[in-house]
Prior knowledge:
There is one protein chain. With about 475 residues, the chain is an alpha+beta fold. It has 2 domains: about 10-215 and about 390-475, Zn peptidases (Aminopeptidase), CATH 3.40.630; about 215-290 and about 305-385, Alpha-Beta Plaits (2-Layer Sandwich), CATH 3.30.70. The protein has helices spanning about 10-30, 40-45, 45-60, 135-155, 175-185, 235, 245-255, 275-285, 310-315, 355-370, 395-410, 425-430, 460-475, and strands at about 70, 80-85, 100-105, 125, 130, 160-165, 195-200, 210-215, 215-225, 230-235, 320-325, 340, 340-350, 375-385, 390, 415-420, 435-440, 455. Strand 4 (about 125) and strand 5 (about 130) form a beta hairpin.
Amino acid sequence: MTEAAGPELLEAADRLFEHDALAALEGYVRIPCLSPAFDPEWASHGHLQAAAELLLDWVRARPMAGLEAELVQLPGLTPVIVAELPPTAGHGSSGEAPTLLYGHLDKQPPLGEWRKGLDPFVPVREGDRLYGRGSADDGYSVFAAVGALQALHECGLEHGRCIVLIEASEESGSPHLAAYLELLAARFGSGGPCLVVCLDSGCPTYDRLWTTTSLRGLLSAEIRVDVLTEGVHSGSAGGVVPSSFRILRRLLSRIEDEETGAILLEECNAPIPEIRRSEAEALVATLGEGAVDGFPTVPGLRLGGADALERVLARTWAPSLALVGMDGVPSVGDGGNVLRPFTTGRIAMRLPPSADAPAAAARLAQVLCDDPPDGARVAVTAEGAKGFDAPPTAPWLAEAVEQASVSYFGQPSGAAGEGGTIPFLSALREQYPGAQFLVTGVLGPESNAHGPNEMLHLPTAKAVTASVAHVLSSAP
Length: 476
């Protein structure tokens, strides 16, 4: 194994961000490149294209011999950045099985009011923090991935063939990614990547290198309930025409226990593997209540679960439902005394990593549409994205991760499941069963991915970059 855990990689990562990458990252923050689900006119608006071109220009300017980078775009799909670097002369590998490094450039919408002095599309640095939409989720990833390679070259360290893939539809569930994985399959070699590095995950703390061992799947559904062809006076129809909102409430009770939040459909549940339970126990032993702390709850709110372990398992291996959007409901200021004709709710249901997401989506649609309450018209569209459960970690990767964490964070590495979803990982896990996975990221305390005041913790971004570089130099 190449010993590369000296301070030079972290020093190179620090130089990269402070003297080069930050200017481009701040330029990226300024672009409102929303994911297609939040900007149906993304093609005509051109923001995703602008962000991709800005990042591509930065990649192409890297001083590394043999680096090739291009913007690939299939008709009707969002673009992807593909950068490839051949193995160094002394690495000894054939280059047949590359390392694939992944991130995304599309963003969530602002989602709420940001605090005074902040704006979602204006980068603001406060000490070690860079605020702005997309800074941590996941604009930093291209700088960390390509920056890790640049750090290796600056330090004269070896690496195998590497491919960087930055997509632009992840926040919409990666609907465009499968076509690009098929298009690029020949580049991955006959057996696929030997290692997949995903930089789009989280970290419970900023004091060590955290690897993500599992991610939940996601079931997205829109449920529309119609009771009238147009709104009528609530005093005239109330008590006779059933409320579309009440019927929606009844439908949701078919799939969720409103008292406990438990999901009632068998297809949406799965047993917890013993190894993941052991990891959760180790996480709680290390962090205590901090393993699930940090939510901006109102005073007095009771959290689910009897203790920290139950809460860790609930957010990583149990299903949960959130109502994330509604149509047909006016604002409080605009709402009149009208019995509304319809209510549409959009739900996001997180699924256990091993659940069959398409089967769960089909079952949910069936349960909601069968025998609609009071004869209302109910329409459901649902789709599922599979979760991810990492394969056993090879000894070389486990050792490299531990070395990197101690060298660049000052603490042993940690492993944890995450409650979010990265569809890319499940797709590659199925397609290339022999690949190793390093799933990590910077989404830690107060990073507020998807919420207001999104923040990138810069020391963590630098340490993750150095850690990735060390792992790449250690790969066989």
